[in-house]
Amino acid sequence: MGQPVASPGLSGGSVAVRGALLDYVGDPFYGPEAEAVRYVADGLLLVREGTIEAAGAYADLADRIGDRPLIDHRGTLITPGFIDTHIHYPQTGMIAAYGEQLLEWLNRYTFPTERKFADPDYARSVADLFLDELLQNGTTTALVFAAVFPTSVDAFFEAAEARHLRMISGKVMMDRNAPDYLCDMAKSSYEESKALIEKWHGRGRLLYAVTPRFAATSTETQLKLAAKLLDEFPDVYLHTHLSENVNEVAWIKELFPQYQGYLDVYDQTGLVRARSLFAHGVQLTDAEFQRLSEAKAAISFCPTSNLFLGSGLFRLEQAKNPEYPVKVGLGTDVGAGTSFSILQTTNEAYKVAQLRGQKLSAFKALFLATLGGARALCLEDKLGSFDPGKEADFVVLNPQATPLLALRNDAGIPQTLEVLEDLLFSLVIMGGDRAVAATYILGEQAYSSKV
Ligand code: GUN
Ligand code: ZN
Questions:
Q1: Are residues 198 and 87 in the same domain?
Q2: Ligand 1 atom with minimal separation from the 309 CA
Q3: What is the pLDDT of residue 7?
Q4: Are residues 443 and 372 in the same domain?
Q5: 78 CA distance to ligand 1 middle (Å)
Q6: Residue 6: what pLDDT?
Q7: Which residue, 155, 156, 178, 177, is CA-closest to 167?
Q8: Which residue segment(s) compose the domain that 48 sits in?
């Protein structure tokens, strides 16, 4: 371990891609959706060395193709790559673990599984499978929990680097309330995280997240040392869990009686910042949403996980309240989440909204999956839309991928936003992994459903 791989950094294709282009120029939760959406029914994406040079109508841009190969994806919908703002790679093999809610699920299934990631070879084999799974599902960037072992982070970043992916990850910090075999110590977690930041953060497309598991498995000393890392490395992330489950929230109050609530534990220890991302937030109070808004921190909404573990129904409309808006992305949260697919995640997000008497439109759902996720990760200057200069990670969706989808979408590629909204809704609900025809990383095809 520890050797640089042969060709770290960026690699990139120069291509021209023809198809229907759909991305965002604004947030459809605020203002008319039609003003936030950018749609070109016969579009052309021009990519130079992995960077978007132009996106627009084929008729306007065709004479700029030059010597680039022209890839004809007509009949498909091309969107920016999906962004998964919360997932655990060591939990890949324990997806669909039966019968428990959060705290019992952690003890019974999760901790024994994560122990296996002390073995670097095993960790690398799972990291490879995990990244293949993401690409098959159209996910091009993710914020990823590794395990407590620094070598589990090395294995993940090496696998991501080999695929030229923009990925964010970090070593789990936990120094109490977990089996000895998974616990570090406050000081060692600080030192190991620091060494990993120095090794990986900003290397090629890779970024580091300081990753205390959740307040229950960290001492106050450890949380404060996590904040010290954020002070010392201001552009790394903070990634943790927050207010997921009722029993968890009650336990945090017992463990930290001197604080006003769950978020206050993170706040008073210095962890609530603009580059902080909190998974779940199902049990947050209005005041806590407001505090996250003030701090410009982000939430990962993980509906498949919240339903699977019986955690509850996230109040998306509260997070998107225009008076104190909170940045929100979607997370699969595999292995508590039940699918790697962000389109399956939008499906369940829609149903969570329904159970709360709310509507999640197709355009809003796709925003959360793309530009919304990029904003939650403070990566909107690099990812999330087809603006020139951004990195050319995109996904090709086939609205007629199965006989059923072909029947549902028999009119083909829409010419108007109204018809597009209906077609997109079918993908938001039924698309899953099957609608993903191809995934491109830096302009190069990294997955095709045909091969
Ligand atoms: N809270 C603390 N650890 C975890 C985890 O691994 N998964 C989920 N869903 N919640 C957590
Ligand atoms: Zn999680």
A1: yes
A2: 9
A3: 42
A4: no
A5: 33
A6: 36
A7: 156
A8: 3-81+385-448
Question: CA 423 to CA 41: how far, in whole Å?
Answer: 13
pLDDT in tens, 415-426: 999 999 999 999
Q: 88 CB under 6 A from ligand 1?
A: yes
Is 305 close to ligand 1, i.e. is its CB under 6 Å away?
A: yes
Quickly count helices (H) and strands (E) in the chain.
18, 16
346 with 421, same domain?
Answer: no
Query: How confident is the model over 342-384, as pLDDT tens digits?
Result: 999 999 999 999 999 999 999 999 999 999 999 999 999 999 9
Q: Which atom of ligand 1 is nearest to the CA of 305?
A: 9
Domain at 142, CATH number? 3.20.20.140
Residue 289 has pLDDT above 70, yes or no: yes
CB 79 within 8 A of CB 370: yes
Residue of minimum CA distance from atom 1 in ligand 1: 241
Counting from 1 in the atom list of ligand 1, the atom nearest the Cα of 145 is 6
Helices 186-200 and 150-162 cross at an angle (nearest 10°) of: 20
DSSP per-residue codes, 332-353: --TTTSS-S-HHHHHHHHHHHH
What is the number of the ligand closest to the CA of 172?
Answer: 1
Q: How far is residue 376's CA from residue 283's CA, in Å, rounded to a whole number?
A: 20
